[in-house]
Amino acid sequence: MTRVLTTPALATTGLKAGYGRTEVLHGLDLRVGEGEIVAVLGPNGAGKSTTLLALSGAIPSTGTVELFGAPATGSVHERSKKGLAFLPDHRGIIRALSVAQNLRLANVPLEAAYEVSPELEVLKDRKAGDLSGGEQQILALTRAVVSKPRLILVDEISFGLAPIIVTRMFKLLASVAEQGVGVLLVEQFAHLALAYADRAYVLQRGTVAMEGKASDLLADMESVERSYLGSAGAAVD
Ligand SMILES: Nc1ncnc2c1ncn2[C@@H]1O[C@H](COP(=O)(O)OP(=O)(O)OP(=O)(O)O)[C@@H](O)[C@H]1O
Ligand SMILES: [Mg+2]
């Protein structure tokens, strides 16, 4: 779909980040337009999760990060107040609280959440820590979507979910993007992500090895798959 892009939801130049003295991201230029779904692909250890951590403000970074046209320098909390929703790979839900309490804590109207994901109403009094992995994913994504963000960063939403739920979650992200929300999604399974994304970046050892329109990358899966080689355990859908 062609969209008229105005101020990007996210733009980075020369983004560098790491852990202690180890630099993991070596200078990334990334862009997510309003209403655009952008995938970050790449093998295990390429730096996908680190990218999201840096963008969310959870770990320090250098280079520039602009959110909604303004420099982002604040903490996770400040960036979230500006409209950034971050779903880390551990989901960020509070295990000791019930499903309903987790939703309330995020100031999310319960009815809206139950409308998006009816199974959460059935599970509303269950402790979040007692949910299955897939149910926790649904809770986390529903909470993020219903909190009316302007940009969603999501790490491996497909992980541990049944295929039918994966499809539902991707469709949910697509419908949110239709309303103008930017989506940056990290995925190991390239085919899956490219089916929903407008554009994609392929990371390799902390640098952008490939980037382009999702349809172009899908047409050249051989090159995408080649960029995954040399990484033990990497999988391409
Ligand atoms: N907390 C940490 N402390 C030190 N090094 C880390 C930490 N987290 C990740 N790393 C290292 O940073 C590099 C990038 O890791 P990252 O988690 O960003 O990769 P990824 O692309 O998300 O991989 P995966 O597909 O396995 O989730 C790896 O070499 C990893 O070992
Ligand atoms: Mg990761």
Assigned CATH architecture of the domain at 10-83 and 149-228? 3-Layer(aba) Sandwich
Q: What is the strand arrangement across the widest sheet?
A: 6-7-8-3-9-10
Number of strands: 10
The CATH superfamily name of the domain at 10-83 and 149-228 is P-loop containing nucleotide triphosphate hydrolases
* Stretches with pLDDT under 50, minimum 5 residues: 232-237
Kindly, what is the distance between the CA atoms of the first and last residues, rounded to a whole number of angstroms? 23 Å
In short:
The protein has 237 residues and is α/β, with parallel strands linked by helices. Helices cover 35% and strands 26% of the residues.
Please characterize this protein's 3D structure.
- The chain has 237 residues and is an alpha/beta fold.
- It has a domain at 10-83 and 149-228: 3-Layer(aba) Sandwich (Rossmann fold).
- 35% of the residues lie in helices and 26% in strands.
- It is built from ten helices and ten strands.
- It has helices at 48-56, 76-81, 99-105, 110-116, 119-122, 133-146, 163-178, 190-196, 214-219, 221-228; strands at 10-19, 22-32, 37-41, 61-67, 70-71, 84-87, 151-155, 182-186, 199-204, 207-213.
- Helix 6 (133-146) packs parallel to helix 7.
- The longest helix has 16 residues, at 163-178.
- The protein is globular and about 45 Å long.
